[in-house]
Amino acid sequence: MLDDKTKMRRWELGTAGNVMIMGVMAIALLSVFGVTLVSRMIVDSNAAAKRINASQAFYLADAGIQLTRRYLKNGFTADTTWNNIPLGAGTYTVVFNDTTVYWMGNGGGDTLRVYQTISTGTVGCATRRIIELRKRVTEVGFNDKQFITWREDVQNEF
């Protein structure tokens, strides 16, 4: 029969490996948690950067709209294109057209003279496009410099 000291040594030898296995499992679990956390932070920072680029691209496209408003205010109406104008972190391109559209308003087919602006802002891989239609108001009581405007942000790629 075994004495108490021998029984104790056998028990100590049997549990020493278990503690090591549990320690390795705890380290592995914490490593997986850490890797998941870091990858999540990278994905979130990439998404934030894309949103910032998209917002900057929108404001660049708006700068193109403002350019054509100044163009009209000074009395110019000829078709014009401004390509890749650098501003801030990106560029914008503006296409301005003085055009006539067919309109079915007021019960009949009328033609309206409108000014179409297509402005595209680009920052990195983000692109935003704004289309604006402006009609010069010529009714009595209106200044010739006033406009009726339709505007739409038609593209949101990022």
Folded structure, characterized:
The protein is built from one helix and five strands; from the N terminus they run H-E-E-E-E-E. The relative contact order is 0.13. The protein has one helix at residues 4-73, and strands at 80-87, 90-103, 110-123, 126-136, 147-157. The protein is rod-shaped and about 110 Å long. The protein has one domain (39-157): 2-Layer Sandwich (Pantoate--beta-alanine Ligase, Chain: A,domain 2). The chain is α+β, with helices and mostly antiparallel strands and 158 residues long. It has a five-stranded antiparallel β-sheet. The model is unreliable at 140-144 (pLDDT under 50).
Throw out a few tags for this protein.
158 residues; alpha+beta; Pantoate--beta-alanine Ligase, Chain: A,domain 2; 5-stranded antiparallel beta sheet
CATH class reads Alpha Beta
Structural class: alpha+beta
Largest sheet: 5 strands, antiparallel
CATH architecture: 2-Layer Sandwich
Overall average pLDDT:
79
Query: Order of strands across the biggest sheet?
Result: 1-2-3-4-5
The helix content is: 40-55%
- Report low-confidence residues grouped into runs of 5 or more: 140-144
- The outline comes out as rod-shaped
User: Span from first to last CA?
Assistant: 78 Å
Number of strands: 5
Q: Kindly identify the CATH topology.
A: Pantoate--beta-alanine Ligase, Chain: A,domain 2
Q: Please, how many domains?
A: 1
Order of helices and strands: HEEEEE
Radius of gyration: 34 Å
Number of helices: 1
> Approximately what portion of the residues adopt beta-strand conformation?
35-45%
